[in-house]
């Protein structure tokens, strides 16, 4: 197997794991303050997309942890899966 094919297989495995974690934790995450969506995607660092697969939690507005109730803090990882919080604003049906 080529290195590229191995990386593709690894990424597919990562996506499957993240999708399973999303299914298990989506309702809990959606109940937190400012959360407007939960998805699976590539994480971002400084607004630049990386190659790391993550559970993406979309929020209307990022808020410092110090201003959140403990139950509304989004963990950095869930079941070993990285969590990327991305500010997307309000989502409205068109």
Explain what you see.
With 94 residues, the chain is α+β, with helices and mostly antiparallel strands. It has a single domain (3-87), classed as GMP Synthetase, Chain A, domain 3 (2-Layer Sandwich). It has one helix at residues 3-30, and strands at 35-45, 48-59, 77-78, 81-87. The protein has a 4-stranded mixed β-sheet. The protein is globular. The termini are far apart.
What's this model, at a glance?
The chain has one helix at residues 3-30; strands spanning 35-45, 48-59, 77-78, 81-87. The protein is α+β, with helices and mostly antiparallel strands and 94 residues long. The model has no long low-confidence stretch (mean pLDDT 88).
Count of separate DSSP helical elements? 1
H and E string? HEEEE
Q: Main sheet, how many strands, which sense, barrel?
A: 4 strands, mixed
**What's the domain count?**
1
CATH topology: GMP Synthetase, Chain A, domain 3
The N- to C-terminal Cα distance equals 45 Å
Give the proportion of residues in helices: 25-40%
Low-confidence stretches: none
Structural class: alpha+beta
Number of strands: 4
Name the strands of the widest sheet in spatial order: 1-2-4-3
Gyration radius from CA atoms, angstroms: 14 Å
Percent of residues in beta strands? 25-35%
Overall, the morphology is globular
Q: Assembly state here?
A: single chain
What is the CATH class name? Alpha Beta
Average per-residue pLDDT, rounded, comes to 88
């Amino acid at each position: 197997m080529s290195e590229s094919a191995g990386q593709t297989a690894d990424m597919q495995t990562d996506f499957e794991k993240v999708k399973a974690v999303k299914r298990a934790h989506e309702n809990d995450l959606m109940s937190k303050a400012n959360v407007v969506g939960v998805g699976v995607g590539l994480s971002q660092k400084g607004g630049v997309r990386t190659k790391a697969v993550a559970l993406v939690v979309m929020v209307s507005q990022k808020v410092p942890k110090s201003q959140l109730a403990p139950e509304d803090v989004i963990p950095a990882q869930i079941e070993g899966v990285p969590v990327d919080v991305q500010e997307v604003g309000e989502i409205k049906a068109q």
